[in-house]
Amino acid sequence: MNSGQRILGGGVQHVLDYLRRLQAESPAFFYAVQGDNGSSNGNIFWADATARMNYHYFGDSIKLDTSCRANGYRVPFATFTGLNHHAQPVLFGCALLFNESEDSLVWLLQTWLQAMSGQTPVSITTDTDHLIQMAVAHVLPETRHRLCKWSIIRETKEKLTHVCQTHPTFETEFMKCVNGSETIEEFESQWKSFLERYYLTDNEYLQSIYSACRHWVPVFMRETFFGDILSDQDNDAKNTFFNGYVDASTSIQLLIKQYEKALTIWHEKELKADLDSTNTTPVLKTPSPMEKQAANLYTRKVFIKFQEELVETLANPATKIDESGTITTYHVAKFGEEHKAHTVRFNTFELTANCSCLLFEFSGIICRHVLSVFRAKNVLTLPSQYILKRWTINAKTGSGSTVEEYRLELPSNSQESLTMRQNSLRQEAIKFVEEGAKSIHHYNVAVNALKEAAKKVAAAKKKNADKTLVNNLVNGCNQVVDEGDIDLADSGQSKEEKEQKIRELTAKLESINQQSEVYRANLLAVLKDMEEEKLKLSVKVQNARLSLKE
User: Fold this and answer.
1) What superkingdom does the record give (predicted)?
2) Is the distance from CB of 373 to CB of 332 less than 8 angstroms?
3) pLDDT tens profile 361-408
4) Opening angle at CA 66, ends 64 and 67, nearest 5
5) What are the two backbone dihedrals, phi and then psi, of residue 534, each rounded to the nearest 5 degrees?
6) How far apart are CA 437 and CA 446, in angstroms?
7) Cβ count near 330 (within 10 Å)
8) What angle do CA 350, 356, 360 make, to 5 degrees?
9) Hey, what's the torsion of the CAs at 8, 12, 14, 17, to 10 degrees?
């Protein structure tokens, strides 16, 4: 163990034993130790099956949080997180960083990417550490890199405490400049005026964060998807997966317990949000068919955000300013704020529109400006290209091209491929059970389908076994026929010897068939147990609802 590990004592071994046990229980569990390759760093990374599958659905934008070490936590805990379809934090992996050299951070990102089957994110948000920036540039060169805005704001307050105390409006003006700028030109102008107002033109710290403004000021990031649909207050750096579970006093012995607790709590929150989204109807504020459509498609939190944009169209009329072929250009502005108008280009033939505010590109939620143009052009329902599946109630369903693409992305490495196939089948089976348990009719259909599927799997295995035996006979394969065996095609072989060899091969084939039947029976037993557990859970949920109503 290195010095960092020695300080934590036997807790590191406790974590390693825990990870080995989880991997033994689930082949889809992934963990790696940097020291296993001969290094003395000993950094540890892990991701469970749920994290890996969630990344498949919600891995478009991620956050790497390594602030625990910088903030003096006892445990150098690092996390990869994102947002699920309810805009809740979702975990994509964890690490213990005993060494934060550039090589170690490169190893961490490469190992995490391997666990995620090489699927790179669209965007990543990290701390401002220079080594992390270099590691991201090395491992994820095509991914848009954003520095954590809240870390920079917090650091600005700390470094300019004397200015904040002398000028009470300083913080408000700074936030307005950073968050309130609608265009790059507006930000540049406001930043210059801000520095002059507080006589900070020569301040080295402000010069340094300005030089990096394209990596943290929102107006520069809007052309890239980051999934930020929450308000700044809700989207604060405190809104993390382990907030309230891991803090500066958490020991490495307590870490695993808190890790499991956080997983359980967030899983329960997701289930509750799922139930709210599927079993309750939101209050509609307009007679628009588009609002009703969105209420049926989006999760509750995302629908509320969409509804806000839709209602705002009433105060943001669209004014046509140009028309050329199939393209019509509009200015959309709030009453009395025409100087802040946004430009929307609408394609009549394709029913597509793009807005200068870039809200859809940044968050995946269509903006009020485009919706206002849709109203003017009598577009009554949302075109499919403006409905991001990752924000819908069915974000994690296995239907459609998403699953097919995922199957194609399974790694070629035999062990990794086996792991991913098991994980994929497990997730599909769970969703199948959930659907099949919704009613007696669905249940009966599901059971019959499982029986039919089991027969097909057994037939496929038998076919493969038969094919293997035939190949062995033709090619003299040593896997079935030993070197000492006599080739059936040898003209010098007696009839009795040939018949004996056929009987031996037939017996082996019968043995394989019996094994297939055992596997089929085991599969049906497992799925039946899952169905029974789901039915029990459904009953408990129904009883809980009834008790709440009472």
Assistant:
1) Eukaryota
2) yes
3) 999 999 999 999 999 999 999 999 999 999 999 998 854 333 333 333
4) 125
5) -65, -40
6) 8
7) 25
8) 65
9) 180
